[in-house]
TrEMBL record:
<feature type="transmembrane region" description="Helical">
    <location>
        <begin position="151"/>
        <end position="175"/>
    </location>
</feature>
<dbReference type="InterPro" id="IPR052730">
    <property type="entry name" value="Sugar_ABC_transporter"/>
</dbReference>
<dbReference type="InterPro" id="IPR000515">
    <property type="entry name" value="MetI-like"/>
</dbReference>
<keyword id="KW-0472">Membrane</keyword>
<dbReference type="GO" id="GO:0055085">
    <property type="term" value="P:transmembrane transport"/>
</dbReference>
<feature type="transmembrane region" description="Helical">
    <location>
        <begin position="96"/>
        <end position="123"/>
    </location>
</feature>
<feature type="transmembrane region" description="Helical">
    <location>
        <begin position="259"/>
        <end position="280"/>
    </location>
</feature>
<keyword id="KW-0813">Transport</keyword>
<feature type="transmembrane region" description="Helical">
    <location>
        <begin position="12"/>
        <end position="36"/>
    </location>
</feature>
<dbReference type="GO" id="GO:0005886">
    <property type="term" value="C:plasma membrane"/>
</dbReference>
<feature type="transmembrane region" description="Helical">
    <location>
        <begin position="207"/>
        <end position="225"/>
    </location>
</feature>
<feature type="transmembrane region" description="Helical">
    <location>
        <begin position="70"/>
        <end position="89"/>
    </location>
</feature>
<dbReference type="InterPro" id="IPR035906">
    <property type="entry name" value="MetI-like_sf"/>
</dbReference>
<comment type="similarity">
    <text>Belongs to the binding-protein-dependent transport system permease family.</text>
</comment>
<protein>
    <submittedName>
        <fullName>Carbohydrate ABC transporter membrane protein 1 (CUT1 family)</fullName>
    </submittedName>
</protein>
<feature type="domain" description="ABC transmembrane type-1">
    <location>
        <begin position="66"/>
        <end position="277"/>
    </location>
</feature>
<keyword id="KW-1133">Transmembrane helix</keyword>
Amino acid sequence: MDKSQNNRAWFLVLPVLVLVAFSAVIPLMTVVNYSVQDTFGNNAFFWAGLEWFEEIITSERIHAALGRQVLFTAIILAIQVPLGIFVALHMPKKGFWASLCLILMAMPLLIPFNVVGTIWQIFGRVDIGLLGRVLTALGFDYNYTSDWLDAWATVIVMDVWHWTSLVALLCYAGLQSIPEAYYQAAKIDQASRWAVFRHIELPKMRGVLLIAVLLRFMDSFMIYTEPFVVTGGGPGNATTFLSIDLVKMAIGQFDLGPAAAFSIIYFLVILLISWVFYTVMTNLDRETK
């Protein structure tokens, strides 16, 4: 027997839709409006068409920032995904130590972004910071404010410290869903540790790994607060990633038109790659069923 649908539940969702429209759609339309107009001040705007988009796409400054951003994201994913898997595989499965490890792993994720940047800004200073003073005492010429390599290393290590826990916890959740019978069967077959990981653990972690890669890609590709607090985008433009360059363009230079076009292109790139990840995840789920 067909059951009649009750659409009254949509009234409960309506306030959320209104809130999303107010907080997301309306500001987005404002940005779109700025991206196709120009102004000489006094709120006098005139049509500019796609001029700002052409300027952003052909800008060498944006190309350089994009190159730094892609390199940073690639390094972050190359370090955090294998490290997160390694940590998850060696975490206790049951008992007090498992609970303690989960608490310790979750702690970095609870720290606000600006606090993380401030911690590492002080930690890396050569005059008062523990890291900076220890490296200097060991004979390393470390100074993240003047050397681009030191600045990159500091930002990368800071992000690894802050976000590897997320990958590890997601992988740990995937490992916990594996029935004990799988391990018992592998033990009876005298399977090696690598074979257990390759044929039992990795397939079970495939879904959560894709989620972890998606989340870390989005976060690292949009990173702003931590490197801005630590290095301010310097030395020079060494750590000026896309988000930092966008803020400098919009607030520092007050170029609202180019900044609006920049932000729309930025948003579409992230949306496109996220859609690709979602499609891959959906296809994998269909294959495993």
